[in-house]
Amino acid sequence: MSQMWKFVSPAGVLHVVTDEKKGFRHLANMYPEQALRPAYLKNVAGITSKHSDDHNGWQLLSKVGWLQHVRTGAVTVVAGGPNRFLGARQQILRDMELPADEQWFTSEDVLMRLISPDGKTSSGADLTENSGWKRVEEPVCVALLGHGDCLVGLPPDPDVTEAEMDEASSAEALPEDEMGEPPSEPPSSEPPGGTDDMMDVLLVAAMDAVEHQGVLVS
């Protein structure tokens, strides 16, 4: 099975690379204004000796933090790290369809402690919510997103079972081309038309069988 690398751009866009030789070069060429090089992406991907979790705001999907807007439930990736995220306030609020005067974070330090799994306040208490935002895990729907999808303003997770979450994760197929395609959703196990239609089909089949044996059905 081919290797897959999922990157998040500083703007919060998901990029998928499946070809180590061509894919990194192709992605770097998409952003000439950022002077992005294949070697830098490989450093972020951890496949060189110069490993780095971040290069000018580019990170692996597995390394980013997530925040949920408490009032609306909308979720956003903390793209580019805390400093870049704070500086992109107006763009993020627009993408999430929130008012320009929406509550925001008072400092980078507060944001960093909020998105850190072991974030603490000055009193030592867990910091799980600040200024109307709270830390959340990666949304379930991200497993079904593909190359070019935006990770800002995602809907909140529905009430799903653990089995459904596992199914969504396992449904992620390798992209066909070097940059990736969104995986298809797993087929439904329910027959077309639902359970009621299936009962009708079984009833008709049973009646035909009885008539075939010469028994009258009233």
* Strand neighbour order, sheet with most strands: 6-7-4-5-8
What is the number of independent domains? 2
Overall 3D geometry? globular
Strand content: 5-15%
Order of helices and strands: EEHHEEEHHHEEEHH
Low-confidence stretches: 120-126, 171-178, 180-195, 201-207, 209-218
Please, could you describe this protein's structure?
- There is one protein chain.
- The protein has helices spanning 23-29, 38-45, 81-87, 89-95, 108-115, 162-170, 194-212, and strands spanning 5-8, 14-17, 59-60, 65-69, 75-78, 129-130, 133-135, 152-154.
- It is α+β, with helices and mostly antiparallel strands.
- It has two domains: 5-170, no CATH class; 188-218.
- Helix 1 (23-29) packs across helix 2.
- It is globular, with a radius of gyration of 24 Å.
- Mean pLDDT is 75; it is low at 120-126, 171-178, 180-195, 201-207 and 209-218.
Can you describe this structure in just a few lines?
By secondary structure, the chain is an alpha+beta fold. The protein is built from seven helices and eight strands.
